[in-house]
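User: For a benchmark we're assembling, each entry needs the component sequences followed by a predicted structure for the full assembly. Here are entry 17's components. Please fill in the structure.
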Amino acid sequence: MMNDTHIEIRNLNAYYERNQQALINVNLKIPHRQITVIMGPSGCGKTTLLKTFNRFLELTDGARITGEVLIDGENIYDPDKDVTEIRKKTGLLAQRPYMLPMSIYENVAYGLRIHGAKHGKELDQAVQHYLEIAGLWDEVKDRLNSPATSLSIGQQQRVCLARGLAVEPEILLGDEPTSALDPISAANIEARLLDLKEDYTIVVVTHTLRQAKRLGDYAIFMYLGEVVEAGPAKEVFEHPKEERTIGYLSGQF
Amino acid sequence: MTAEAHKLPLGQRLFPRRQHDRIGSKVLFVLTLIPMILLIAITVALVIKTLPLLREYSLASLLGGTEWKPLKGLFGYLPFISATLWVTILALVIAVPPSLLTAIYLSEYASKPLRSVMKPILDLLAAIPSVIYGVWGMLVIVPWVQNKVIPFANSFPNGFPLLNTDNPTGFGILSGAIVLAVMVAPFIVAVTNEVLTAVPEGIRHASLAVGATRLQTIQRVLIPSTRQGMFASVVLGFSRAMGETMAVLMVVGNVVQMPGSILDAAYPLPALIANNYGEMMSIPMYDSALMGAALILLVMVLILNIASTLILRRLMGRVRRAW
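Assistant: Structure for entry 17:
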């Protein structure tokens, strides 16, 4: 399925309280196993769009959507879809890392325990495996039972990555995942994402144009709730077609 | 007119303004100290008033004594202390589970409109004067206990633990505890709800994002991280319940005895003080003995309050540091 569509968005509209429209008729095809970057000025709806991919938008009071989001061809808003299955399929890296009130080990094991019984050796191996993928194993292998909150914020974000990967998602969603991190930690996370795109479809909302250029294979530019331009990153960055994209890329807003 | 004429003489006001500020801050400081001074003054006054009694009787005989016969000079506080504990503990047994579940529902499941209706209602419940709860207890709860619970308890030929009684009136510990439970429940709900809403949304999202259900998130993340806070809210409720006087006094029966069943009548400390102070004060030591009861109550409530405040403060501090 290389280069195929993984997430397809059809006629998607999103509203917050008092019918305030956050997404206006969005149609997109997000490619399989590439990094897609969503850019745009604050309030353009990029985070809202991301939240529709794991049905997090419905956690906001008064939010509602119309339209469809298809993952692997199936509408995740279908009434008989199990929301926990959808979220298991889509790992999330939030703007800042939130550690669950438990040890480093338990944070990574959390999702595995949630989805059924894995015990002893098997669980130990899984935890080690995903901490390695997240590039954190060597730093924490001697203190797996310390509270996760004792880690630095950059390390915490990698715990989040390991925690998300442990439930074997197909898609990784990043909501400005490096905006709270120092430059070195941010570079570390970016390097992880570049490694991971071989196996995962990655969608990253980003505020920084430079990060978008470093990471993006496919780029989406949004403005005031609308998708202005979407396409292979090279084209969007080097030959933007739309006036507003050109303006954004040249730093006008 | 020159431009100078429009300028306000700023320099002239600077000194008095600063002095005002200094005086103001001192006045406010003294006002702020008043609660502390009051607390100390009340405690000291109670201790001084109790001293005559403490000179005559040993502390052990007072706290451990089961006889309360002021005319014979017998002042045993144990029936009152145990009545207070019976009523309070039973009230909590009744109030805590539904209160915690309500708080969890309100903070984790309820829609915004429901929350915005329920919160003021709970605040209103907490604001109803206690004498009204007392009247409600006499009109509704006492007859219910008398007509339903006591016959049920008596239907066990060999009796039933904690339900055996020869008190047929319905005025007793159970009635007091039910009224008290209704009174402290809104308070426990409010404090627990506050503790839960202090947990950042991001923590819930972290759990939901890996595919946990809301219930799993509550069980595995929210309850473990707010356990201490919930405990503190219960302890605070406990200390409130312990001091509640009027409503309990009206339905609890007020019989000096060591309770053996939740259907027995009992005589909690606040009722003892409220019912008797100012009467028969000519009896030697009586005044001092009632003050002693007040001192015991005060100490019990203070300990619980201080403990729960410390727990809450530590918890909230940790919440803020960690997240």
